[in-house]
Amino acid sequence: MAEHRTGPVRSEQARVDILSAAAHLFASRGYEHLTMEGIAAEAGVGKQTIYRWWGSKGGVVAECLIEGMLLPIRPAPSDSGDLRADLSIWLTEILEGIELLGGNAFLRSLIVAAAESDEVGARLRVSLGADASVVSRLRAAVRSGELRADAPLEEIGQALIGAVLVRAVMRLPSLQVGAADRIVDAVLGELR
Amino acid sequence: MAEHRTGPVRSEQARVDILSAAAHLFASRGYEHLTMEGIAAEAGVGKQTIYRWWGSKGGVVAECLIEGMLLPIRPAPSDSGDLRADLSIWLTEILEGIELLGGNAFLRSLIVAAAESDEVGARLRVSLGADASVVSRLRAAVRSGELRADAPLEEIGQALIGAVLVRAVMRLPSLQVGAADRIVDAVLGELR
Amino acid sequence: MAEHRTGPVRSEQARVDILSAAAHLFASRGYEHLTMEGIAAEAGVGKQTIYRWWGSKGGVVAECLIEGMLLPIRPAPSDSGDLRADLSIWLTEILEGIELLGGNAFLRSLIVAAAESDEVGARLRVSLGADASVVSRLRAAVRSGELRADAPLEEIGQALIGAVLVRAVMRLPSLQVGAADRIVDAVLGELR
Amino acid sequence: MAEHRTGPVRSEQARVDILSAAAHLFASRGYEHLTMEGIAAEAGVGKQTIYRWWGSKGGVVAECLIEGMLLPIRPAPSDSGDLRADLSIWLTEILEGIELLGGNAFLRSLIVAAAESDEVGARLRVSLGADASVVSRLRAAVRSGELRADAPLEEIGQALIGAVLVRAVMRLPSLQVGAADRIVDAVLGELR
DNA sequence: TAATAACCGAGACGGTACGTCTCGTCTTTTA
DNA sequence: TAAAAGACGAGACGTACCGTCTCGGTTATTA
User: How far is it, in rounded angstroms, from Cα D23 to Cα D32?
Assistant: First the structure.
């Protein structure tokens, strides 16, 4: 038995306008200057329409992430048989994506958003790739003998992404060429 | 020839009261609920006295870090000759310190503060130990042959700390026993 | 064709609460101690709600005057055929009204408010009666021959009210019995 | 027996600098924008030096009045035998003086200062001439028969000055030519 | 000719109020 | 009945002044 409802249905237009406005303002002014009122004004939408569907700024930003409006959704690292090369390419893409969007300043905004909102945090894990996708590539490496059987796969993934975040948070110089290689090198070591 | 200035001198009492109030409120309510008015009220101080000496919340928090009022200042990893053991002990201490102060929620607050304020960011690097102290321990490891000569020492340090941060930011389960070991294992590998 | 606007309408409750609070605080503490924050707190209203509708303290006080919440709105002097008696009664009522509300101190507050805000100044002219109402009584006196045809009617009205104000401003002893008569006598002279 | 005191004596330089600064700021920005800090800065003086000798802004302004730094001290109306002419000249001078210094806006500032400070109020009475000097001229007029013996002399003086103040307070159009004559006419009437 | 006051400039201090901004909720009208 | 518009109570922001209280440095007496 389908449940019936009368009246207009959620406006897809409004939803898209809000997400676009949020993504645009996030990119141009950063999460700390992102306000509900600003999003509503930019989107040409009542504030209530935002609060009706999302509980907070964080929720809106999280949905932007899901939709790939803030960060292009990361592909999994590919499997060419050479783990180091695969991870290096994958990390390079991430670093370049961030650089394109504003570099460390943008990344810091993203980190603040993630730290303030569990929705964003959870989403960012996917968008940045610090999740199953790396782990499954690492698992393949275990199978192929590139990594030993009891290697702490999740921690390796986290160390790779973490090395990127930490540079943004702690104001180390912005990312340079070769950074991805050095990070992979740092985590995977010479001859593993 | 010393330069002379007349007039009253900065009140050390007020400075300490402000930092104590800020540290206390940070610890109990988190950075996002930390307000200049709250600090002033808690410290029994005029707001202007805060603005006179610090330009922002971030500045105050950074000085709290310097004074070791938020995080105990980290000792360098010791050098017992066994790099993995030394790093593991050092990282365990850091994790326990954070856990004691509120765990990942506290760490997230710290990260937000660091991401929003370059002063805090720079200070946090020292307080969390993601700086010269690890690197110099790693350098010793190079000399003793535990690490190869061209290992990317800074990136190794960042990967270690980054693995801790990333778990907080991305809402991975709070830190457990053995976490330090696994992180060190992830970064240093089996038999380096 | 009426212009339409969507959205909530101005809250009459808030408006009245604000004016009551302002009038009450003015009467009890004087204009110089009247603060926007005090009004907002007393009225149980956000400060922004005051600023949304009035630009300044002066505007609020002016509207209090319009509403007769500070000074009862003055009736015009009546016309019994005896100008001096009519003016004397009228001025006596004004003096008694002021005396009741705090005497010269209250009047000084009113004068400060008027001097600082053109809205209050314009309104006070009406409330104190230094306007058309006296002049029209004087015009009747011209018609009945009590005043000569080219008497400077406006200046006469201003001199009457001015004699009251000047005693407040210049800290002359507070108003006594017979004051109204003497003022009317001073301005109209013996046998005009 | 003179009482003796050790230490330096009050600095005449500072006193004059403060009064000049106050008078200058009053003239250029008005009493409502006159601040103790502004005076101190303009005078190149410590705030305490002001508070040491005057209790308040009002006190400083009152002394400016005494020194004739805000308003030239008014001469008494002269006695040519023609009361109306004498008063008219005297009032014209007052109006011209005010006009020169900023007109009604300046006068309003003066009124606010007087209403807020009893020292200024008392002083202004002298400076504006609403005091013994008019009354004594009026008394001469009684003696010469121009005014009847029981005319309320003080109230006449107050009505004259009051008519000027009331125009400033109540935002009536700024003073015009002939105003003095009309005011004298209003108060003294045709043929007294 | 010290010692001792009080003056002076400078300005830090605890406060109060300012006017603005944003929050999240609530209310009204339109479609 | 969702959506736009936007008013509302709340409260933090950063600034301006308040009046008091140190600071050193600098005069004038007084011992």
Answer: 13
Q: Is there an interface between D and C (3+ Cβ pairs < 8 A)? A: yes
Q: What would the pLDDT profile of C76-101 be if each residue is shown by its tens digit?
A: 899 999 999 999 999 999 898 899 89
Residues C124 and D169 sit within 8 Å (Cβ to Cβ): yes
Q: Is there a contact between A95 and A106 (Cβ–Cβ < 8 Å)? A: no
Q: Among D7, D111, D25, D116, which residue's Cα sits nearest to residue D64?
A: D25
C-beta atoms of B166 and A165 within 8 A = yes
Residue C152's contacts (CB-CB under 8 Å, 6 or more residues apart) are D182, D183, D185, D186
Q: Is A171 in contact with B108 (Cβ distance < 8 A)?
A: no
B76 touches chain A (CB under 8 A): no
Mean pLDDT over each residue of chain A, to the nearest integer = 87
Residue by residue, DSSP assigns chain B as: ------S----HHHHHHHHHHHHHHHHHH-GGG--HHHHHHHHT--HHHHHHH-SSHHHHHHHHHHTTSSSPPPPPPP-SS-HHHHHHHHHHHHHHHHHHHTHHHHHHHHHHHHHH-HHHHHHHHHHHTTTHHHHHHHHHHHHTTSS-TT--HHHHHHHHHHHHHHHHHTTPPPP-TTHHHHHHHHHH-S--
Residue ranges and CATH numbers for the domains of chain A are: 12-66 (1.10.10.60), 83-188 (1.10.357.10)
- Cβ–Cβ gap A182/B155 under 8 Å: yes
With bands split at pLDDT 50, 70 and 90, how would you rate the model's confidence at A5? very low
Please give chain B's pLDDT, 192 residues, in tens. Answer: 445 678 889 999 999 999 999 999 999 999 999 999 999 999 999 999 999 999 999 999 999 999 999 988 777 899 999 999 999 999 999 888 888 898 899 999 999 999 999 999 988 888 887 678 899 999 999 999 999 999 999 999 999 999 999 999 988 876 677 889 999 999 987 643
Dig out the tokens for B110 from the structure. 């710290």
Tens digit of each residue's pLDDT (9 = 90 or more) over D129-161: 767 889 999 999 999 999 999 999 999 999 999
Residues 33-52 of A with CB under 7 A from strand F: 44-49, 52
Of D175, D116, D153, which is closest to residue C169 (Cα–Cα)?
D116
3-state secondary structure of C189: coil
Of the pLDDT bands very low, low, confident and very high (cuts 50, 70, 90), residue A192 is very low
Per DSSP, D32 falls in state G
Judged by a CB distance cut-off of 8 A, whether residue B186 touches chain A is: yes
Residues of A in contact with B141 (CB under 8 A): none
User: Does residue C84 belong to the interface with chain D, where contact is any CB pair within 8 Å?
Assistant: no
Mean pLDDT of chain C: 91
Length of chain B: 192
Which among C111, C118, C185 has CB closest to D171?
C118
CA distance B150 to chain A (A): 10
Longest Cα separation, chain A: 66
Task: Sort out which chain D residues have CB atoms less than 8 A from C32's CB and list them.
Answer: 116
Would the pLDDT of A3 be above 60?
A: no
Integer Cα distance of A9 and A11 in angstroms: 6
Nucleotide nearest to D6 (CA to C1'): F29
Could you give the angle at which helices B57-66 and B103-116 cross, rounded to 10 degrees?
Answer: 120
Pull the structure tokens for residue A147: 């990594």
Q: What is the pTM of this model?
A: 0.90
- pLDDT at position B175: 63
Asked if chain C contacts chain B via 3 or more Cβ pairs within 8 Å, the reply is: no
A122 contact B CB<8A: yes
Q: How high is the pLDDT of residue D192? A: 39
Distance CA A37, CA A28 (A): 16
**Rounded to an integer, what distance in angstroms lies between the CA atom of residue D116 and that of residue D105?**
17
